[in-house]
Fold this sequence. Notes:
A: alpha+beta, 3 domains, B: mainly beta, UDP N-Acetylglucosamine Acyltransferase, domain 1, 1 helix, 25 strands
Amino acid sequence: MFQFKKIAKLPLILIQCECGREFLQEEMYCCLSCQNSMCRYCTSNEIFCYYCRNCGDVQITSETSNLTVNCSSCFECPVCKNVLRRQIDTEKNYGFTCSYCFYTTRTIGVTDPNFQQVYTKINNAYKQEYEAEYKDFQDQYNRIKSIENNNFLIKKQQKNKHVLKSLTQSWTKSEALIHYSNADIDKMTKEKNLKVVLQRYNLDLNNKQVELQDFNPSQQSSTLLPIPLGLLSRKNRKCRKCQKLIFTLQPEKNSKKFAYSVQNLHYDHAPYLQVGKVSYVNKEKTELSVVIQMFNKTKNAMEYSFQPLDQQILEQYKLLTVKNLPSPNFTFNNDNIESDVQQYQKFEAILIIKDATKIQFAFSVSAKIKMPMDQQQLNYNVNVYIGTL
Amino acid sequence: MDAIVQYDKSEFHETSSGIKISKKSIIKGTEQINVSGRCIFFNDVILRGDLAKVSIGKYLVVHEKVTLKPSYTYGYTKESPTKKIIKFLPLMISDYVEIESSSIIQATKIGTCTSIGKNCYISHRCIIGENSIILDDSILPPDTVVPANSVYGGRPAVYIAETPESTAIIQKQKLINFYKNFVPKS
């Protein structure tokens, strides 16, 4: 999953999960029953549906019994992995083409005036390939068994050990033959013979005058079949401790829009922190003042309190000490909620710098959120990254 | 804290609905262009409204050297039933979209809360879903469909990852703050 922390610019405010990972405030989830905010790795996923990224066909796991891994109507280019699109010839034969590397199924011979028969041709071609591979494996198995059972052959092989050694090296007999098919063994003998010939004539394979062929899609091998497009999945999220749902999707048959019926983001239940002004206090540049702004973007009244971290934790993570922490309790009231005015409070904290290159400032926060039914509490740690000035 | 970006008032036009267009950009066919408001167009932006209708939502940020051009198909008409004619399709850009510099866009539809990186080429008849990200230096071949909540990148652009559920919130905040901090020099 994509992480916005990599793109975000300093100064940053990140929330530290219990597992030690840090995420943006918007990317954290919260479980109200556990009274804890957590990251994506601390939640468990449950697949809700599979969908095709090209045609939008949706398979909901709870409704359908025969789930497929690949889309039945979309294919992928075997050369560049782009999604293929339909093509009509001048002779009115249907086929697939890639709009990036110009791969076509016409070179394979998979075209037909009836478009649905193109799919059957591709399926038949795959069946033939699988059958050929299965036959190869059967031949190998029979070959191994005949060799093991036939003692006369084993004695002969012991005499001609140098032949087998060149093929197998240090492997045992049965293992060596399993890993190579009949075609591969033929290839290796041909290559070996070539090397012997080249060495006699002192030809250098790594000659710099030999130029490698450029990527020329028109000259690609025409035996490649289009690959069926794999389906993607949409997931529901659950808390790992209490197994309650944090995010659930609404059942819709349109993959272009996915709406959530239950969503519990940390952003929805906690005030939003933002770094305001950052400046040095001293000429010696040992003290730094940071103004932090807090916005209540929820529709609830909130009581908010800060608790400074223990000295053990500060020393363990090499954090700075903080002066002038604000008064322990803030209250966001219900007064202005109907008029949609964002409630806003700010405080200024003075930091003492230890390392000028990277500044880190942390405090733990406990918020009491007055919901209409319950009085609940969220606990989480906040890290503020400011960077160099 | 987002950095304040100051601009010269003499270099930008500003409309009553909050659209800020630089004087060095090239905009053609203004009759067919419909912009909701609070958009920023930087220098050397080319916007071709003379080919087909262009409808743009709010809080769009278009950086330098971007070309926005409607896409096309080949079709037949009653006047010429045998000859193929180029038809231009309307371009639709939704709200809260950011387009980075030096990219060329010929898509038919760009969904809400999307971000397109630098040096991208989005070819004709592409559809980009909402809450999606297209990485820098990527090429989208024609007729690609980018699903919602996805990250695409590469040459050709391929599905890479899924975006988190809160991308809409992040993108909206980012662009609203960018617009607020884009302030004329006093």
